[in-house]
Amino acid sequence: MSKKNEYVTEITNIEDDFAKWYTDIVLKAELADYSDTKGCIVIRPYGYKIWENIKNCIDKELKIIGIENTSFPLLIPESLLQKEKEHVEGFAPEVALVTEAGGKKLAEKLCIRPTSETIFMSMYSKWLKSWRDLPFLYNQWCNVLRWEKETRPFLRSREFLWQEGHTIHETEKEARELTLRILDIYAEVIENNLAMPVIKGKKTEIEKFSGAQETYTVESLMYDGRALQSGTSHYFGQNFTKPFDVKFQNRNSEDEYAYQTSWGTSTRLIGGIIMSHGDNRGLKLPPKIAPIQIIIVPISMKSDKVIEKCQEIYDKLSNQFRVKIDLRDQYSAGYKFNDWEMRGVPIRIELGLRDIENNQLTIVRRDTFEKFNLKMDELLKIGDILNKIQDNMYNTCLEHNMKKTSTVTTLNEFQEKINKNQGYIKAMWCGNSECENKIREITGAKSRCIPFDQEKISDICVCCGKKAKEMVIWGRQY
Amino acid sequence: MSKKNEYVTEITNIEDDFAKWYTDIVLKAELADYSDTKGCIVIRPYGYKIWENIKNCIDKELKIIGIENTSFPLLIPESLLQKEKEHVEGFAPEVALVTEAGGKKLAEKLCIRPTSETIFMSMYSKWLKSWRDLPFLYNQWCNVLRWEKETRPFLRSREFLWQEGHTIHETEKEARELTLRILDIYAEVIENNLAMPVIKGKKTEIEKFSGAQETYTVESLMYDGRALQSGTSHYFGQNFTKPFDVKFQNRNSEDEYAYQTSWGTSTRLIGGIIMSHGDNRGLKLPPKIAPIQIIIVPISMKSDKVIEKCQEIYDKLSNQFRVKIDLRDQYSAGYKFNDWEMRGVPIRIELGLRDIENNQLTIVRRDTFEKFNLKMDELLKIGDILNKIQDNMYNTCLEHNMKKTSTVTTLNEFQEKINKNQGYIKAMWCGNSECENKIREITGAKSRCIPFDQEKISDICVCCGKKAKEMVIWGRQY
Fold this sequence. Notes:
Two copies of one chain form a homodimer. Chain A is of the alpha+beta class. The first copy, chain A, has 13 helices and 23 strands.
């Protein structure tokens, strides 16, 4: 049996061609499909349920700290997008424009939002009067468009779904605190629910968001050693509130411009889950966000006794877990095993006549492929197994990341390590953009972030040899 | 005191100018605001929470019957929208077009979806192989654009939020059943949660959805006697599946085109809530979808004892109810009463030192303005009061609708009644579109629906005097 055919025929081997393996999973597991609109995907029900689960986790945490949801217009007048110079320079090249509507040419072109800082600030300027009105803590779950040249499902799609939070505050301190509080929420949700370890840090000048004063990020490492920016949180100071005239009467009855933040996570997290956990059998989903946590497969579709028992197990589990029985009669049990493994379901319950005789069921873990029996009266222990899978998936990922992390002190070493191993490269940096650009040219790696957890590797910049300012994590990226 | 100033200064009297009253409430209760994008609104947090509550109600019911959520592209290639003749004729005049993107003119214009039948059918054609794959029961919660000339917040906005379900089935029977099952769900949610009585029926040929074989509707009547189409469900037969080649191998191994439905409800329901229940004090929200069900107002902000007791009450209620304390110290208790009445909160709890002494709290109902005391140990009876309010709001609306419904047998009577009373007009119809158009020209009323609950008013058509086919409900509309 060839390496390629070992598990599911249609999936490319992960070690042979990671990009093709990724696309195979997206399509075969029915997470998404290419649409008639070039560069835009359809998120299919199985993929969308993952997004709903991620969304619920994030939304719940945001609501706890008082963030409120809103809905702002999809279309932004071109003149509004142009009000903040750096911002428009960053986004204008990727914007899609509505020029005709209702059978007429429009007097002013309308941009489909690539992000909504401008239109939020414009409304905030209208609503804000006094320090008593502050803070505004608003968020929206919506679609945005960025006209990318090369697209990949979930990772880089011309349209994607995300949440974008936009807040304004009375003081710089409060705004800065909120920026970091959100970053913590992103890190917690991604680590605890998506089982993806993250590194928290600050972006360099080159990598920060167009128009922001500071950008913070949570970075994840994929199985192939490339990094994925998994969520960002920006502090703007008064960069937008000044041109948009977002001011308030402060406690001293003076006019003051508000202090702003924005932050977002998107459906690219689904891409992150695929590439963090998947293997040659397909997708591997963390229990906390898996649309189906437990799949029940009857070994014999012809035995009423087996079908009834499966239904009984389903009834016992379905209040607490997301569970499904596979009753398709056109497929063999073996086909179903492969199929649900490919779709990443964390636990498979197999049930045959022998299991019924022994008053037990057979459990197979997707993460370790361990197969064992559980007595019928211990059925609810399955919750503990799901927790173990969740933890194991996180730890496996963390271990992998550690193996894929190198510490270097010279550019030669940098190049060697990243060519051999991809992964995160830890290296000292002088703080100069020229060195950052040079590193990128030579190694293909961008700075991921200046991590909060600093280590002193050496005294000098890995590139220019001058005095180092901080340790930076570098990597090739998605 | 003038009539206009009786309650909240800023709100136009409902009897003087209903349209202005409506806009006042939308703005003053901070449900929505006009945006920089003409014809598009911002849904503010208070309005958006109502939408989230409506959404949860509908989404839950849809999931129970097996509907799955998806996300389809916002942009639809022009050629795709043009594939079904009647459909494109209906929607082309209202479409917004993207003609430039990423700094370039596009080879083919892209329509912002006014509705998504075409792109769903195009994907279904790709996915569907065998009868075993059916049904596809997909839905999406998303934004759509229709370039209306005259816009009104929630009721007719160029962009609005909605859910659109698109299903295909193996048989006509199954598709027709689903069409009506969905209509029942809409009716139940709108009546039970939004406290708006509806009439279920079928649209006439003139009023049906572009491209549909049959359109079913739930119609509601607003306070001013105009009707609002609150949700529609369409049966398409094979009208789209043929041009889009959505076929499958049936149980006899023959090719067959699938049978299609689509159905939707939108943020216009928020407009319906405002106009069904509101009064001169402002918004009046049904408890089941109110963002805040109970507002606690301390009578004295200076007494720590009062504030503490309010907090205690809050803690006891907040697990079961959506409750808030108003601790703003820049406003008087009286101001707060008016403010929360204007925002439609179903129950107000007033708490002062005397209440504490008597171990009680003061309750004021928004629907009846009844004011009464509740002993502290009976606090959880507040759940029953919320239920009573919910029921009373529905019944009040139903009574109002009955008063506003007239039965007529001649066109003169029709004209007289609708000019005097607006409202629903019940009249017999021959089934001919010419009569329908004539009635519209003369009275300004369109057919709302051919209701499922038929009454035989007379034997002849109210317009032409020929043999009547069915009773139709007519009305001027939003």
